[in-house]
Design a protein that fits this description.
Strand content: under 5%
Number of helices: 16
Strand order of the largest sheet: 1-2-3
Protein name: Equilibrative nucleoside transporter 3
Structural class: mainly alpha
Membrane topology: Multi-pass membrane protein
Keywords: Membrane, Transmembrane, Transmembrane helix, Transport
Family: Belongs to the SLC29A/ENT transporter (TC 2.A.57) family.
Helix content: 55-70%
Pfam families: Nucleoside_tran
Order of helices and strands: EEHHHHHHHHHHEHHHHHH
Length: 468
Amino acid sequence: MANIQFDYSTLSTSISRSELGSIIGHHVLETPYDINEETSSERSDDEGEIYVHPSPPDKYKIVYWTFGLLGIGTLLPWNFFITANDYWMYKFRSTINTSCIDNHNKTDLQAAFTSYLALSNNVPYVLFLIICTIFNNRFSKLFRVLAPLTALLLLFSIVTACVEINTDTWQMGFFTLTILIIIAVGVISAILQSGVSGIAALLPAEYMHIMVLGQAFAGILASVAQILSLIGNCDSIKSALIYFFTSDTVIFFTLISYIVIQKSEFFKYHTYSLKDATALKNVSELESREKVSILHVLNMLWPYAIAIILDFWVTIGIFPGLAVLIVPEGKGNIWNEKLYIPVACFLMFNISDFCGRIVGGWVPIPHSRRMQLLALCALRIIYFPLFMLCNLQPRYHLPVILSSDIYYISFMTMLGFTNGYFIAVAMVVGIKSVNPMLQELAGIILSTFLGAGLMIGALTSYICIKIL
């Protein structure tokens, strides 16, 4: 099978005709191009028509559920990594008093860890998303998912093994090892995100939808695990062991599931060959598009790309860095002392985000109204002042005007729902709005803008905290 190759000097994609089916798949039926369905693969005429069979079924929906698992597998390990904050604070505590953690007088390693965590992950993540966009077809579709999943499993196995190891005598060495793992996770996650998004873009729209639902569900699982560990009074070591072992298990089953679907006729039909596609006319017109620059695709996608940046800029600018500073109205009970932030902040956001993504698949904003989607994403900027006027502490400049818990929980619910809804619409409708030949590249490009939104949001969060 011929491969898609890049002309690096012009940042353009050269697509051989034999690879056409790997890009077209059954999505060609959803476009306005000149298409006639035929029941036989034997017919042809002098106009250069190609007649082939319709798509085989996705037996037992195995490919569908695998892409849901891929959505979970791409984000659950990282969610658990940051959820285990108490574990990291324990590992980097003062070794003079090893029996407890002093949250008011943090060590240098404790104070630096969160900042290094964000920087070490986000910078390589965004950088490699850009690299993957430019060189997206240098490696096979199989390699672009299996290799990062295997590497991710290896890295998290190392992290899991370190939980029970006494690192007090080599804290700086363990800190360095952890940061190096975080950098590697950022690189691998970018490759995995790019690969999964690109392949999901070749499948019917509901497969991209289940993938983005899986990513939201990963956040819910992490939040529920954190709440259960708090209710059960699990110590930081035991909680971390549960988090990381669960991550290892999910990555392993995701890896196995992706290997299994390689034998699926449905999956091969959409990603590898033209054998079982539907009748396609005007091949010469498509051949004239065999060389398409990334900028050309971006020119068609820019409203969705900007919408994704705006969406994640606002969301990450507030959640979790700014949102976790909330102080509840009451005091002296388990809700206010232990569960308020895990439930009202993390769980509420993740459930709302998940619901928004479901609705985004059911009631999307059509391509003809893409500028309305862009405008609605821009309007989400209003969440910055709304949250900053809630009872976030410490603060030095702005007054607290919206002190009631009702305001905070309402804002968090709306922030999560709108984030999920807009990202689902932008990813699914945006990718399907371009020529079927370009949908894989479109999925990778939009993933890159998602990463850019994450980085801008993280920087904005830091600025907002200084303004408080």
